[in-house]
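Need a sequence for this fold. Nothing fancy.
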C-alpha cells in the first residue's frame, strides 16, 4: 500500500526515525536495484546520525546485472558497504548478519576496552515504500511478521527478532518517503510501481520506458513486440514523432485499436508498463550511476 506524503507526514516520519535509530547500532538501507538512485531517500544520511550503514540492493532478479555491478562499484566508491539481495528467494540474505557484525567491530572493541560485554548487533531496515522491507524482514525472521501500513503515524509495539547468533533486528521497518521533486525520479518510481497507480499517467511512463529501451535495451524491446528495424533516437525534437510511431507499431501488433482504426494509446501504454513490471521485457534497470 502506498500513500501520498505530505509535509506533516514527512516531518513525523523523520522524527520517529531519529528516535528509533537511537536504539540501534547499524542502519540497513534498502533500495530497488532497478532504480538505485531514485529509490533512495536523500535524508538517509542525516537520519542515520553517523551510525554505520549497510546498503542492500534488493530485487537483483529484476535488474540488469551489468548495471547492478556498476551501481555497486559506484556506491562502494562513495564509501558504502553494499550487498546484493533477492529478498523474495533469499539470495544473498544469509550474509547480512556477518556484514552487520563487521560494521559494529569498532563499537565492540571500544566497549570491550572499557570492560563491557557488547550486546548483539541491533539493526533496523529502512527504505521507501515497496522496496521490499517487509519481505526482507520476513526472510531474516524466518516467519511472517505482520505488516504495518506505509503510514508514518501507524505504530505497533516493536519487537526485536533474533537473527543468527550476533544480530537483533527491529520487526518494524523505518518507512521513508520517496523523492518527489525531479520528474525523472517520479517516472522511475511510477514505472516500477513504487507510487500509486491513480497518481500516474500511463502514457508518460510508457514513453519513458520506450525511450530507455530504445537507448539501452533494444533487443528485448524488438523481441517482445516483434519489431523489425527499430528506430534510433537522435536527441532532437523529432524523437517525439519517432516514439509515437513506435507506439503505433506496438499498438497495431497488440490489436489496441479503437473504432475507426485509431490506436488506443491508453491500452498500449498500460500493456508496456505492465510488461515491464511483470518482467516480460526482461530484467531492466532504468538508471545508471
Ligand atoms: P515494503 O515493505 O518495502 O513496502 O515492500 P514489500 O516487502 O511489501 O515488497 C513489495 C513487493 O516487492 C512485493 O510484491 C514483494 O514480494 C516484492 N519483492 C520484495 N523483494 C523482492 C525481490 O528481491 N525480488 C522480487 N522479484 N520481488 C521482491 P507484491 O507483488 O507487492 O506482493 P506479493 O504479491 O509478493 O505479496
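Here you go.
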Amino acid at each position: 500500500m502506498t500513500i501520498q506524503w505530505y509535509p506533516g507526514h514527512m516531518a513525523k516520519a523523520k522524527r520517529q526515525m531519529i528516535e528509533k535509530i537511537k536504539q540501534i547500532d547499524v542502519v540497513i538501507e534498502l533500495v530497488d536495484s532497478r532504480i538505485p538512485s531514485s529509490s533512495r531517500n536523500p535524508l538517509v544520511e542525516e537520519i542515520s546520525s553517523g551510525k554505520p550503514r549497510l546498503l542492500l540492493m534488493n530485487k537483483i532478479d529484476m535488474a540488469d546485472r551489468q548495471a547492478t555491478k556498476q551501481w555497486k562499484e559506484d556506491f562502494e566508491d562513495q564509501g558504502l558497504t553494499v550487498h546484493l539481495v533477492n529478498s523474495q528467494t533469499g539470495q544473498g540474505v544469509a550474509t547480512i548478519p556477518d556484514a552487520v557484525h563487521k560494521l559494529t567491530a569498532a563499537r565492540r572493541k571500544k566497549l570491550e576496552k572499557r570492560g563491557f560485554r557488547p550486546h548483539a548487533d541491533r539493526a533496523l531496515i529502512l527504505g521507501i515504500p515497496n522496496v521490499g522491507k517487509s519481505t526482507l524482514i520476513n526472510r531474516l525472521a524466518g516467519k511472517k511478521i505482520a505488516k504495518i501500513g506505509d503510514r508514518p503515524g501507524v505504530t505497533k509495539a516493536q519487537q526485536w527478532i533474533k537473527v543468527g547468533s550476533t544480530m537483533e533486528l527491529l520487526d518494524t521497518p523505518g518507512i521513508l518517503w520517496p523523492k518527489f521533486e525531479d520528474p525523472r525520479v517520479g517516472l522511475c518510481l511510477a514505472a516500477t510501481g513504487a507510487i500509486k497507480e491513480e497518481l500516474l499517467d500511463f502514457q508518460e511512463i510508457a514513453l519513458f520506458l520506450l525511450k530507455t529501451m530504445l537507448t539501452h535495451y533494444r533487443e528485448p524491446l524488438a523481441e517482445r513486440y516483434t519489431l523489425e528495424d527499430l528506430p534510433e533516437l537522435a536527441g532532437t525534437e523529432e524523437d517525439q514523432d519517432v516514439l509515437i510511431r513506435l507506439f503505433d507499431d506496438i499498438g497495431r501488433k497488440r490489436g489496441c485499436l479503437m473504432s475507426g482504426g485509431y490506436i488506443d494509446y491508453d491500452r498500449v501504454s498500460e500493456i508496456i508498463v505492465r510488461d515491464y513490471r511483470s518482467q516480460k521485457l526482461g530484467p531492466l534497470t532504468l538508471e545508471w550511476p
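For context: The domain at 201-277 is CATH 1.10.1580.10 (Conserved Hypothetical Protein Ylqf; Chain: A; domain 2).
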